[in-house]
Amino acid sequence: MIESRKLLGKSINMTGIIGQNGKSTIAHMIHHCYHALEIESEISRSAEILKKINQKSYEKKVKDVIIEVCQRDIREKRVGYLDFDTLILTNTGENNDTDDIWTMKRPFIALPINKTAVINIDDEKGVDFCNMTIASTVTYGMSELANIRATDIQLTPTKTHFDLHYQGTFIFRAETPYFGLYNLYNTLATIAHFTSEGYDAIRIAKLLPELPPLEGRYDTFVTDSNIRVVVDCAKNFEAVKAILTSLKEICSGRIITVIGADGGTTRHQRQLIGGVALSYSDQVVITSDDPQDVEPQEIIYDMIKSTFRQNYRLCIDREKAIEVALKLAKPNDIVVILGKGHIKTQIIKDKTLPFCDNKTVAYLTEKFEI
Predict the structure, then answer these.
(1) Calpha distance 246→243 (Å, rounded)
(2) So where are the chain's domains?
(3) How far apart are the first and last CA of the chain?
(4) Comparing 4-210 with 219-367, is the CATH topology the same?
(5) What confidence tens digit (pLDDT) does each residue in 14-67 have?
(6) Superfamily of domain 219-367
(7) Contact 242/182 with Cβ under 8 angstroms?
(8) Residue 46 and residue 30 in contact, taking contact as beta carbons nearer than 8 Å
(9) How many CA atoms are closer than 13 Å to the CA of 4, on its beta-carbon side?
(10) φ/ψ (deg, to 5) at 265
(11) CB–CB of 336/230 below 8 Å?
């Protein structure tokens, strides 16, 4: 096994983030908290950092590396070469099978006793992860069992407020500029990570309001007609459910969702995505994401074929679908456009075409004076 610290030639703190959703957001939060603490850090992926280690090209000033660990990296045994100081579990997902869960568990099982596991105790498998690792554990969530806990949660369209508890004791009324319960879990994971490194939880919580937005994740604005538009990259079952359930908490009107599925998703996944969008939206415009080599009509049919609901419209052209949703909306409604977020292209057959949800919304709202 490669000894990463010897190859790097210096001490470096490695944090790995494993789970179905939230990896990029947590990495972003940790990175910017380090920046606020005047500590140089970098966000990477397993394959990228291994390449840098092997080439001994890592910048000397970087003290902390936050690594988004995907299941493929674990299966292909890239992760075993990384000497993690901390592993964070975000969530295991509602529809992952036994093999997927086992894949996520493997790095935690291998984590030595002198390292730290930061675990979402509210996750269905959270207790299992705590029980099967010999590393020190720090837990987070809304449960009374959590070391880092949130209570008295208040959601607004642009912020989340909550009471922060540490080891069972209330310590601070916190605020984060990220919307939704799903992002609150990401926030708690970030605080838990820093407390595991010896930082004061209140000190970290006070940094949260200054965190910059993450492009393509809950980009939101209100039109002249008082219609809120949300653009987000959520595209799997869990992520779509998370954002739509959180939006229902704050929406005084209707939720109108624009969503598709890319050509790489299985038919079962498409059914799940379509089903959850229809269940948690008042109206859904089902459209194209990145169909790639798959016929868009086939993907759209898979998304609706197992539902008895009638609250949908079909529109293959994504720009037209966004237009339909905006024209359906009335004051106090929320139009939520899911799947692409910050991505500025669309892949159809062998062509990669320019397409940006945010730019399309801006163009259409101005054109039709919405």
Answers:
(1) 5
(2) 4-210, 219-367
(3) 59
(4) no
(5) 999 999 999 999 999 999 999 999 998 989 887 677 776 655 555 556 778 899
(6) Mur ligase, C-terminal domain (3.90.190.20)
(7) yes
(8) no
(9) 21
(10) -80, 150
(11) yes
What six digits make up the tokens of 271? 């059914």
**pLDDT tens profile 260-269:** 999 999 999 9
CATH tag for 4-210 (out of 1.10.3720.10, 3.40.50.410, 2.60.40.1640, 3.40.1190.10): 3.40.1190.10
Determine the average pLDDT of the residues in 223-244. 96
pLDDT per position as a tens digit, 328-358: 999 999 999 999 999 999 999 999 999 999 9
Report phi then psi at 45, rounded to 5.
Answer: -120, 160
Strand partners, 117: 87, 137
Query: What token pair was written down for 104?
Result: 């996520």
Tokens matching residue 250:
């704050």
Task: Give the residue carrying structure tokens 């996520």.
Answer: 104
Q: How many CA atoms lie within 13 A of 281 on its CB side?
A: 32
Question: Which tokens is 277 given?
Answer: 């969008």
Identify residue 246 by its one-letter amino acid code: S
Query: What's the pLDDT score for residue 58?
Result: 57
The 8 Å CB, 24+ separation contacts for 291-297 are 291/260, 291/262, 291/263, 291/347, 291/348, 291/349, 292/262, 292/263, 292/264, 292/347, 292/348, 292/349, 293/263, 293/349, 293/350, 294/263, 296/260, 296/348
pLDDT digits (tens, 9 = 90+) for 89-99: 999 988 778 88
Reading phi first (left if > 0) and then psi (alpha if -120 to 50, else beta), residue 152 is in left
Report the sign of the C-alpha dihedral through residues 23, 29, 32, 34, in that order.
negative
